[in-house]
């Protein structure tokens, strides 16, 4: 536990002292707020409904058309808060964690810690704990922007922090595999783009949705959409189970690469 605390304190001081690192945890919630303020989903749907309401058509036809249109748009259009939250959890965090760990490898810090007997779990909790802590406040920002309160907030925060955990573990494995910061950026960004943007395309294409169903970022998207719309083809327990199954697989990968490369790198 003392090793974990020491790693956490060292990484926390390093991160807080670097404004460029901190802003990465602030930019996505702020962007979600700005997009919602300028072109929120509800405002776009209301504008379209008003347009149809002014058409010279029979009232029964207008009611049916507007009702169908509102439902189709609300289910097909990516929610702005959900979209930014998914991008943050998937695309934003993986390169951050990968760069932190790759930097430790370049500085020989990871090799020293490994030789000193630091376990993979201690190192991961120490470094990842800082990212997890800062991501909690980012996730809280998304919850407030998305108007998730009470039980909805608890479910959303649980989903967000679960996805954050997945990205931390995956980013850690990528960082160790990379060996240096430049390689970490090259390897982590394609993964981050696939996991961050894939669920957005999945909302507009059933084939993509079926493919992405096994990924944790897609399940985060499904949970957030359920909170927004009140309906989902995937039960909440199943979504959380898939997320944590992802985390378990990535945790095994991290332990493997840490033991194989952490000491000898």
Give me the number of helical elements.
12
Flag low-confidence runs: 69-77
Shape field: globular
Main beta-sheet strand count, sense and barrel state: none
- Written as H for each helix and E for each strand, in order along the chain, the element string is HHHHHHHHHHHH
User: How many structural domains in the coordinates?
Assistant: 2
Strand content: under 5%
Structural class by SSE content: mainly alpha
Total beta-strand segments: 0
Proportion in helices: over 70%
- What would you report as the Rg, rounded to the nearest angstrom? 21 Å
Average pLDDT over all residues: 81
Span between termini: 24 Å
Key features of this structure:
265 residues; 2 domains
Structural account:
With 265 residues, the protein is mainly α. It has two domains: 2-38 and 79-261, no CATH class; 40-77. Helix content is 85%, strand content 0%. It has twelve helices and no strands. Helix 5 packs antiparallel against helix 11 (216-229). The longest helix has 28 residues, at 151-178. The protein starts with a helix and ends with a helix. 38% of the residues are buried. Residues 69-77 have low confidence and may be disordered.
């Amino acid at each position: 536990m003392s090793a974990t605390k020491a790693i956490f304190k060292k990484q926390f001081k390093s991160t807080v002292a670097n404004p460029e690192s901190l802003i990465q945890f602030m930019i996505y919630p702020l962007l979600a707020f700005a997009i919602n303020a300028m072109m929120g989903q509800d405002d776009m749907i209301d504008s379209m409904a008003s347009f149809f309401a002014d058409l010279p058509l029979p009232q029964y036809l207008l009611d049916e058309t507007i009702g169908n249109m509102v439902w189709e748009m609300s289910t097909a259009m990516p929610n702005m808060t959900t979209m930014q939250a998914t991008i943050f959890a998937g695309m934003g965090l993986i390169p951050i964690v990968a760069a932190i760990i790759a930097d430790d490898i370049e500085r020989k810090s990871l090799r020293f810690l490994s030789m000193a007997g630091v376990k993979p779990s201690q190192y991961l909790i120490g470094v990842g704990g800082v990212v997890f802590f800062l991501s909690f406040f980012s996730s809280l920002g998304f919850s407030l922007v998305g108007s998730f309160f009470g039980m909805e907030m608890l479910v959303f925060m649980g989903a967000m922090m679960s996805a954050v955990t997945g990205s931390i573990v995956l980013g850690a494995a990528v960082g160790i595999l990379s060996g240096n910061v430049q390689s970490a950026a090259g390897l982590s960004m394609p993964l981050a783009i696939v996991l961050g943007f894939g669920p957005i395309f999945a909302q507009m294409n059933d084939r993509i949705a079926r493919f992405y169903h096994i990924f944790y970022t897609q399940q985060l998207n499904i949970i957030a959409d359920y909170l927004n719309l009140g309906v989902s083809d995937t039960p909440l327990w199943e979504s959380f189970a898939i997320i944590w199954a992802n985390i378990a697989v990535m945790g095994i990968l991290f332990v493997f690469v840490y033991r194989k490369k952490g000491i000898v790198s």
